[in-house]
Amino acid sequence: MLLNTYTDSLDFNALTQWIDQALSSVMPAWGVVLTECILIGLCLLLGYALIALALIYIERKVCAFFQCRLGPNRVGPYGTVQSIADMVKMLIKELITIDRVDRFLFNLAPYIVIISSVLAFGCLPFAKGLEVLDFNVGIFFLMAVSSIGVVGILLAGWSSNNKYSLIGAMRSGAQMISYELSIGLSLMTMVVLAGTMQLSEIVERQADCWFLFSGHIPAVIAFLVYLVAGTAETNRGPFDLPEADSELTAGYHTEYSGMHFGFFYLAEYLNLFIVSAVAATMFLGGWMPLHIAGWDGFNAVMDYIPSLVWFLIKVGVIIFVIMWFKWTFPRLRIDQLLKLEWKYLLPINLLNLLLMVIIVVTGLHF
Amino acid sequence: MNLTLLLVVILTAIFLVVAALGLDKLLSPRSFNKQKGEPYECGIPTRGKSWMQFRVGYYLFAILFLIFDVEAMFMFPWAVIVREVGVAGLFNILFFMVILVLGLAYAWKKGALEWK
Asked: Could you tell me if A183 and A230 are in contact, meaning their C-beta atoms sit under 8 angstroms apart?
């Protein structure tokens, strides 16, 4: 019922329709499509770059406060321009290609990593009507494209002709493919509850109650498993052994310099954003405001906040939790890492899926 | 329209890499030094080749991953229609899952999940 009454205070559908009409009044149909495609591409690039820069700044600030430091505070007010300065610095560094690398694969690796993260980024539902790719197999497509990134990392490590890179890439590959299973199974648990894979549809179905609450215990377990697996999938803290600096210098991107290194850096932060955004969409209702059945006044107040703001708040909270993990737990060894996935998370996930199916089939969910 | 958009997103990604690399090539300095071409190995010359045989443990996990990933691919369509197929569908998928879990149990028993 709330579905029909919910109107966004910042409606993107109206905006896109207005742009479409304004364009079609001045140019032929093919021109409209072309201009819109270029606009979409530009918005995507802008969003991608802005989010990456903001995340790099946030990471450094959060990390500093966890260690009782100030973090970047010289460039701009409170150091806000620091990550832009870093990007400019990266742009004016020489691109060094060392001798005896596999040149083709060495140069191909950043492309694959960036393409995979931009494709996954394009699938995310940011707000009502603000979504580039909305397939009916949405979440499945998202998982498929984000797993292409592993190929890029393996290529980078292999082609560098450096033992550190090779070990880092092998560890990274083993870790990412293992934890992908947990991500897939915990998301499948939520697909069972949602009954659809289309991301916009999944968000709409959480209008009355977020899936984290309507799915009873299985949803909570799936959420926890997803958080652990997501942290491992992004190669972040306690699972950062592919680039454990004290043993492997920089892991798979040891030999990359300048903007080549910058791409791996960008993709890493964007993957953090994507993992958190998927968690927000599948478990916490995406851009849907918090609604409590029966509390009409409360719901009206919540609806007043734009959906984009809701989405960013939820993603921000999850990103903060993942950063918190990094400064709380010590780094795992590779045998502990694989044991955690194959002996604990995978069996738990399979049982959890079964439990969720039983709940859905018997109609015990809300 | 969706496929056009997919193409737009892929082109955007390629544009990002090409533009940033082009900018880097334009702005960055270039100098030649023989030492620069050495791979980083803590300051000492690399011994032997880096493209060598690697431990087999990673390969085992890759094979196991393949089995479970294909399984996930088969189960996603079922996950969408769980409500419609109901209890009968549940028993059908249980059969499939039991075989898979037996596979995992076999790998566990054989010690394929140990990192030695």
From this structure: yes
Mutate to test the interface with A, among B1, B3, B28 (most CBs of A within 10 A): B28
Distances in whole angstroms, Cα of residue A352 to Cα of each of A54, A194, B65, B87: 36, 15, 19, 17
Cα-based distances in Å from A8 to A205, A286, B63 = 16, 14, 47
- CA A305 to mean position of chain CA atoms: 23
Please report the ipTM that was assigned to this predicted complex: 0.86
- Answer whether B28 sits within 8 Å of A162, measured CB to CB: no
More confident residue, A132 or A186: A186
Residue of A nearest to B24 (CA): A91
First-to-last alpha carbon distance for chain A, in angstroms, is 14
**H-run or E-run covering B72:** helix B57-80
Q: Is the pLDDT of residue A318 over 90?
A: yes
Q: Is A355 on the interface with B (CB under 8 A)?
A: no
Q: With contacts defined as CB-CB under 8 Å, which chain A residues touch B94?
A: 354
Taken as a whole, chain A contains a residue count of: 366
Contact A192, A356 (CB under 8 A): yes
